[in-house]
Amino acid sequence: MAKPEPVIIGIETSCDDTSAGIVQGGSKILSNVVSSQIKIHSEFGGVVPELASRSHLENIYIVVGEALKQAGLQFEDLYGVAVTYGPGLVGSLLVGIEAAKAISYVYKIPLIGVNHLEGHIFSSLLEGQSFKFPFIALIVSGGHTELVKVSGFGEYSIIGQTRDDAVGEVFDKVAKLLDLGYPGGPKVEKLANLATFGVKFPEAVMKDGSFDFSFSGLKTAVRNFKNSGKNTDNNSLCAGFQDAVIAALLNKTFAVAAKNRIKRIVLGGGVIANKTICAEFVKRGKKEGIELFFPSSKLCTDNGAMIALAGYLKYQRKEFCDYDLNADPGLTL
Ligand code: KG4
Ligand code: ZN
């Protein structure tokens, strides 16, 4: 009889979602429970670190218990416990790490530390998609904007990053200045979809020819336009803003793929939940003969299953951690 595929639990508490996901064999999601803190942070228009860690503490064991229940499993059925140890908010990361250590110690299973960005990079694999190395990954979330050449699991070279705001952050800030609420990404996308035209905003081009991004100028341009008193509705502002973001993401990512002669692009991170962004990538990919991979919306935003998957890839390589595993808020790839 074939050996059962290893079952890994992934714990994710790097920002404002408390999540635990259980994945078998690196692709089969048995459960993926996400407890969102949106209600707690929305009145402040952004994540308040102290409130986030307190809320993780209240929720972590409930979320882990629920993930086991939905998977129909007991702690004893787990082969390993994976946890995000960075990048992220230190107080939030520590809650997940301590919970993972407790599970590892009590049930005598390996502890696996996962870089949150690796979770986002490989999240498309959770839905049965498979891609070959090398590929270009674009990870765009509330805290990150990274263009990365991925030559193998654990083999990353960063080609471009943001020099100021991350893409998700700029969506959130534009939503705040238009009084749309938090998180801003889905709200801006919704209004952009209703627009009949988009205000023209310039795409930020790096004068030094680098593949880095800059979005703070765009945010200022939206604010200036709003304050100028010109008679334009929020829908057209959101559409124009979103178009300018898409132009920057598309042009840089495809230019990097062409320069490296790589025919595969993998997208990940909360901003990829934006259907217009994905559609534009697919359209350009078809034109340029480049294969596109991205997860469905619910696996784009932070979740435990993507950490369990990255944990499984490390489990196979026996890349385990000791109990001195610590939070690393500034962890890079
Ligand atoms: O990956 P994620 O859940 O958390 C981080 O690792 O940061 O990403 C959250 C970010 C937020 O900034 C949110 O506004 C953005 O992803 N986001 C979107 C959309 N859905 C979420 N941005 C644009 N369009 C969306 N539909
Ligand atoms: Zn994330």
In short:
This protein has 333 residues and is α/β, with parallel strands linked by helices.
Task: Describe the 3D structure.
43% of the residues lie in helices and 19% in strands. It has two domains: 133 residues, ATPase, nucleotide binding domain (Nucleotidyltransferase, domain 5, 2-Layer Sandwich); 164 residues, Nucleotidyltransferase, domain 5, CATH 3.30.420.40. The strands form two sheets. It has a five-stranded mixed beta sheet with strand order 3-2-1-4-5, sandwiched between helices. Strands 8-7-6-9-10 form a five-stranded mixed beta sheet, with helices on both faces. Helix 4 crosses helix 11. The longest helix has 26 residues. It has 333 residues and is of the alpha/beta class. The chain has eleven helices and ten strands. Bound molecules: 5'-O-[(R)-(carboxyoxy)(hydroxy)phosphoryl]adenosine and zinc ion. 5'-O-[(R)-(carboxyoxy)(hydroxy)phosphoryl]adenosine binds next to helix 5 and helix 6.
List of distinct ligands in this structure = 5'-O-[(R)-(carboxyoxy)(hydroxy)phosphoryl]adenosine, zinc ion
Radius of gyration: 20 Å
The CATH class assignment of the largest domain is Alpha Beta
Distance linking N and C termini: 39 Å
